[in-house]
Amino acid sequence: MTDEKEKTGQHAKAVPPPVSAASAPPKPAAETPKPAPKKNEQPVIDFPPEDKRLWSVPPYLSSVYPTVYFKKPVSRFFQNENLASLLTCFRLNRLVRAVNDRIKQGDSVLQTGLTAGPLEREIAINLNGQSLYEIEDISRVQALTAGSKYASWKNIRLLSRDFTFPREHEIKYDKVVVFFTLHELPDPRKKALMERVLDVVNPNGEVLFVDYGMPSPYNPMKYPVILFNRLHEPFAESLMTKGIKSFVDTAKAAKYTWTEESFFGGLYRIVTASLKG
């Protein structure tokens, strides 16, 4: 028996005495995970659900522009800057610069309607993320496409809505830009949009209307543009013949100072409205 116990003891492993919690070595602290780098987020795109008028496509728009603004491949095709420049007789960049020169860093900006060309990019670069830049457009296709294009600018807010209707809670802006929007609207909608944008500009701010004018009789593009508009832009001719200011009630128009600058022999114009006093 004794030999067996001794023999067994030779091969048994020694069991260390239990270690108390007090004497146990401290565990190394877990490393705090580093936050992942924040990626550029897509600009906020609002799709107002509360009032069907604000987001449903008006009949005139779906009949005159059934594909340009509502079919993604066609919409992307017309977003080409070279094509946009061609359709404005290669005056697009000059018009964009003229608008952007009137916008100062720190200005809050409302723009009615997304545009083909560099306007949004140039305004965003000018503002440098320092102030609010809101863009309204009825086309969800346009808004989603623009959302990916301008994702790096955190101050841009896109709203898919009918901009001819006022918002429930309007705010004021330093600059309001209406860039080649009026000529796509029937006359009652032109009037509604102009009434609205004049109401949302700050006392020291400006509304900038950029659109067609009535060109000089000697302008070689006068009749080709009129013919093109009669075929493809049926609401443009009244704007050319009447003028932008004529779509505002006389009493209301009298409260504002109006200036006009013509481009390319009168074919295009920038009309600026600012509140008197």
The whole-angstrom Rg is 31 Å
Give me the number of helical elements: 12
Number of domains: 1
* CATH homologous superfamily title: Vaccinia Virus protein VP39
> Termini distance?
117 Å
Could you name the ranges where pLDDT drops below 50 across 5 or more consecutive residues? Answer: 4-10, 34-41
Structural class: alpha/beta
Proportion of residues in β-strands: 15-25%
CATH class: Alpha Beta
**Run of helices and strands:** HEHHHHHEHEHEEHEHHHEE
CATH architecture: 3-Layer(aba) Sandwich
- CATH fold topology: Rossmann fold
User: What is the subunit organization of this protein?
Assistant: single chain
Q: Tell me how many strands there are.
A: 8
Give the helix proportion (percent range). Answer: 25-40%
Tertiary shape:
globular
- Major β-sheet annotation: 8 strands, mixed
Any overview of this molecule?
This protein has one domain (44-275): Rossmann fold. It is 35% helix and 19% strand. It contains twelve helices and eight strands. The protein has helices at residues 2-11, 52-55, 59-64, 72-78, 81-87, 92-100, 119-127, 140-149, 187-199, 222-232, 237-242, 250-253; strands at residues 44-46, 109-112, 133-137, 156-160, 173-179, 201-212, 256-263, 268-275. Strand 3 (133-137), helix 8 (140-149) and strand 4 (156-160) form a beta-alpha-beta unit. Helix 6 (92-100) packs parallel to helix 7. The protein is globular, with a radius of gyration of 31 Å. Mean pLDDT is 82; it is low at 4-10 and 34-41.
